[in-house]
Structures are given as structure tokens and as C-alpha cells.
What does this fold into?
Amino acid sequence: MEVETRAQIYHERQRLQFCLLHSLNNLFQEKDAFTRAYLNAISERLDLDDPAKGRWSPIFKSHHNTITGNYDINVLIAALEGKGKTVVWHDRRNRASAIDLDGHSDKLMGIILNIPVRRCAGLWKSRHWVALRRIEGVWYNLDSEFAAPYAFKDLEEVRKLLDGIIADGAEILLVNNEAQ
It folds into this structure.
């Protein structure tokens, strides 16, 4: 009797607006690959690099909210570069078929999505960070708002999701293992 075994998938659940932190840890498949303190330090460093922007409020910094999280793209890129990764923006004019999801190369570590969302009956617009990663040949949606990781059935399902969110205004960031 054959028993199908799936890899153990690390999955952090959403707390406040720390979806960037959760998506990074989910991408790296490690609980403390990134911490709030680490991301806050990056944000503070970015604020010091541009003093005109950084000190306008003790709570609402230019790169994050000190209470709820809500980190921006600058923090994401600096965090990933600090771990030796590169980030490439996917040109939204291209469909998902332009992304090498097949794994012919070990270059692509995973994908980070920045998806527009509406909350509070559409009164509040925000954005949500989500990680997609291929683990043992299977692509997973590691959205921190999901109760558990979602295993895509095939590459076409991944491409369909990506094409749909591109049409809805999402940004797709390809996280690569090596510098370009």
C-alpha cells in the first residue's frame, strides 16, 4: 500500500498587519528567519538614510507602522538582500507564462505578491503581502490569512492565479537565489 507523503510546510498565520513578516518567514520556511525587531531595524535605517521622511511620527514611520507592522516594499527588498537574495519586479504587461515556474533553474526561490484589498465593507483600501513557494516540486500559496498552506494542483493553476491578480492590480516580485 502506497502512502502519499507531503513535505512539512511551515506556515505563519496573520497577526495585525504583519503580513510582510509572515510572508518572508513562510517564503524561507523558518519561524524566525525574520523578526519584528529585524524588520524594524531595517525601517529605522531606511529612515536615517532619508531624515526628511523618517521622523514625522513616533508611530507612523515612513516605512512601517510601529504598532501594527504594515511594512513597505523598501523593507522587503532590504530584508531579502540582507539574506543574499535579489528581487525582480515582474512586468505586469507580461502574463504569468513569462515566469519560469517549471523549476528548470534553481534561480527562483519563490514569489512575493502585493495584492490590493478592501476592508471594512470597502471603506478602507490596503495591500496584503503573500508568499508563493515551490517545495519538493509542488507550488504552495502560503497566504498568512489562510488557515493552512494551499497546494496548487498544477502549474496552470498557479499561472491562472497570477494572471488574475495581475489584472486586479497586484504586484509580483520574483525572489531569486543569486545576484544578477
In short: Residues 19-176 form a domain with the Cathepsin B; Chain A fold (CATH 3.90.70.40).
